[in-house]
């Protein structure tokens, strides 16, 4: 379905996730959740640096002052890349030790939307939270299993959200000033043979680029019609997330995973766990920052 040029960066993550473009550093970040690793890849030099944390590291975003915002197990922290000082900000679900954070994004008002899931994948154990300047997490959705990909339309009228095992991308009416969501409809239903929807991002045409876990690619969907438009075929089965970046915001960084693969499967798909850079014919948006 495509003729994309794909460049791989060998990182061999067990569970690569949370691709993020840091504009001022002109570099891509991503994480290896289970190994607590943070990666930074400078596009201009092609160099990749790593840091390790003694926690599951599930999410990286940017704070108002350029610092990193990290989700570590069930806590949110700010992290200064220069001093390597980690400052804890808030926590959720301290009564649920088997839960951890998963995916997250910031809205146009600088509020963090971040979900949880059980490390045992217990059905209905996850929730979606909104965290504002007061750093008090407020639950927006519950009874989730794997709280995952999110995106907002450019007009801030619509919020898209994935609970992975449902194979559905749901559309919510979004009220920007108050940061409230109201369920609208199922925008996209993923057929069983295309794997499970994981992380996603939105382009400037309003189309959703969705990483399909078990689907060997990133799929571009029209959330208005529910139709599949195109696919970036990748040489690994478990694609976990994607984000636009680069000088023109037209390069996708795509993460993948080695988890749940046998030794024979890893021999068949040796690039599993690597990340991939793909130049597209569309553009994304700069990510909004977390404003505390």
TrEMBL record:
Keywords: Metal-binding, Zinc. The keyword Hydrolase does not apply. Residues 15-258 form the SMP-30/Gluconolactonase/LRE-like region domain. Its cofactor is Zn(2+). Substrate binds at residues 100, 102. The keyword Metal-binding applies. Binds 1 divalent metal cation per subunit. The active site is at 198 (proton donor/acceptor). It holds the Pfam family SGL. Gene3D superfamilies: TolB, C-terminal domain (2.120.10.30). InterPro entries: 6-blade_b-propeller_TolB-like (IPR011042), SGL (IPR013658), SMP-30 (IPR005511). One of its GO terms (molecular function) is gluconolactonase activity. GO terms for biological process: L-ascorbic acid biosynthetic process. Belongs to the SMP-30/CGR1 family. This is SMP-30/gluconolactonase/LRE family protein.
């Amino acid at each position: 379905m495509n003729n994309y040029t794909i460049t791989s960066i060998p990182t061999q993550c067990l569970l690569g996730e949370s691709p993020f473009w840091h504009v001022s550093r002109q570099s891509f970040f991503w994480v290896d959740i289970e190994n607590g690793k943070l990666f930074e890849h400078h596009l201009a030099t092609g160099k990749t640096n790593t840091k390790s944390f003694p926690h599951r590291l599930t999410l990286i975003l940017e704070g108002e002052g350029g610092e990193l915002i990290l989700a570590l197990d069930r806590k949110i922290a700010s992290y200064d890349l220069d001093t390597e000082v980690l400052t804890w900000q808030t926590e959720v679900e301290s009564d649920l030790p088997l839960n951890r954070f998963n995916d997250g994004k910031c809205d146009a008002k600088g509020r963090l939307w971040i979900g949880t899931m059980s490390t045992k994948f217990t059905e209905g154990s996850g929730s979606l939270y909104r965290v504002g300047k007061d750093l008090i997490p407020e639950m927006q959705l519950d009874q989730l299993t794997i709280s995952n990909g999110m995106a907002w339309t450019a007009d801030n009228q619509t919020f898209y959200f994935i609970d992975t095992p449902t194979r559905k991308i749901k559309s919510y009416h979004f009220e920007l000033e108050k940061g409230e969501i109201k369920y609208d409809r199922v925008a996209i239903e993923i057929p069983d043979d295309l794997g499970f929807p994981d992380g996603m991002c939105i382009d400037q045409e309003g189309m959703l680029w969705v990483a399909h876990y078990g689907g060997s690619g990133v799929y571009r969907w029209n959330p208005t019609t529910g139709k599949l438009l195109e696919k970036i075929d990748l040489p690994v089965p478990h694609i976990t997330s994607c984000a636009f970046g680069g000088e023109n915001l037209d390069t996708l960084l795509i993460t993948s995973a080695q988890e749940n693969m046998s030794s024979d499967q890893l021999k068949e798909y040796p690039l599993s766990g690597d990340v991939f850079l793909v130049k597209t014919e569309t553009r994304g948006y700069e990510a909004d920052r977390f404003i505390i």
